[in-house]
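Before relying on records like the one below, remember that each one covers exactly one chain. Contacts with other chains, cofactors or solvent are not represented anywhere in the record.
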Amino acid sequence: MLDALPGFVQRLYLVGSAALDDYREGASDIDFVAVLPAAPTADEVAALAAVHHALRKSRPLLDGVYLAAADLAAPPSAAPPGPGVHAHRFSPATAVGRDPVTWHTLAHHGVAVRGPAASALDIHTDGDGLRAWTRANIASYWRPWLRRHGLALLSDWGVAWGVLGLARMHYTLSTGGIASKSAAGGWALEAFPEHAPVLREALRLRAGDGPPLRVRADGATPLFQVRADGAAPPFQVRADGAAPPFQVRADGAAPPFQVRAGRAAPPFQVRAGRAAPLFRSRRARRTAAAAFMHTVIAGAA
């Protein structure tokens, strides 16, 4: 990208997960801010569009904005629409990414790829403006998203996106800072202990840790998951569904937890060293995720 248009990008910085130490290979995009010496001409915008068209099948996806240096010194609201790319989709004139989150992330966390350290740039930051933008984003994006796309919370992606996305919003409103999804999720565990199970589940999904939540065709989660090698779980359930008081593996080792007679068996088994899903069904998980999101949205109103 830099070599295709010599002299066009004066300075280049990473923001987003790559700058916030939360990049996930195969899942995260590359977020960037490219600083130009001046507003681009029509020919330069056309050449930039050709560059991103050539990159459209490459991975990871690119999300970024092209800004004149003077734009960063002023409030984001004063920046005119300009070139930007989202998930490899290029726009010659967009307002997306020209917001206080980009300005603050660049000022406090930006990683220089070309040019001086981000701390050496003249970047306008305003804590009150950041909080106001965050409240507006919750009202204009997150509240409608939950209302219109709540079924997305049945998916692993939807839970991680919705729960951790709003955890980031609440972190910014409470602290005035910018945090990654994972860091905000960890912070929210302390702020919302009543929602700890769904926050832990979202963090587990973000980290790619543990087996996915498996659901039967009827929507119920199986009580036990068997390892890929076919090994049996450390205890069994009788045909009538009752759990035996205790089972011991053939090698004599005790199972990781015990079940008393008359008590339901734990809903899943986990291989050593892997985190367990925390919900018996996707519907239960969706309900918990929506409850957390409603709590944050209501608190921001």
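The chain is about 40% helix and 10% strand.
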